[in-house]
Amino acid sequence: MKKSLLVSAAALVLAATTTVAPLGVSAAGANGEPQGTTKAEFTVTAGNDGTTTPGGDEGTGDYKNLWLVQAPDLNFDKTSVASVIAGVTLPYKDGVTLAKTGDAAENQEGKLQVTDLRGTSAGWKLSASVSDFDNATATADQLSDRAAAIAAGDKLIGTLTLGLGAATADNFTQGATTADLTTNGGDVTIWNAAKTFGQGDTKATVDATTTKLAITKNANVKKGQYDATVTWTLSSTVTAE
Predict the structure, then answer these.
(1) Which of 5-14, 141-150, 197-206 has the lowest mean pLDDT?
(2) Which of 162, 184, 161, 156 is nearest to 84 (CA)?
(3) Which of 65, 142, 169, 210 has its CA 20 to 30 A from that of 136?
């Protein structure tokens, strides 16, 4: 019984000694003074402050908070039947088109803007493609067979050269850009923000001097309004966490 009491007393002394010793403090100062370390922190969430959004088209899933904010309509000068028969290159006029897609990013001011608020620094790529130019007066049946429609003059083909001025960007360096989009062709890269680049806003305006449309000659061309759809695709290599 007496031995048990002595053991208990020793344990209490040890516990008291352990409790009194300072934790997380080391004598690391230049003169041996005690120094300790603590933390200060805050959290950054993806996206914006929740009160406003960039506008335009936002991605989903892994692409959430990656925005195609603005994409330009392209309006070219009028031409004539005689000119198309010979083959003609049309200068860019402005962004005021008669046909509209109703897309959220579509604008008539010649503006192009990408906004990356994902907080991943994964980078992104913006590409574009253009369809054939369809005569607005042609029926769906007339346009369904591409070769026949081209031969009949209901479709016109060629190359759309898209010129952009140097981009203004928060984290991306992009000089003046020129890209040739062949009608009914594949995607062509417009901007490419490598990994660790491209977060924030990247903006540019269509350059009226370098933007043009070269129409392949067609002896069966019909009068009327011709429209093509430009498809803008914003992609990334980001992977799910």
Answers:
(1) 5-14
(2) 156
(3) 210
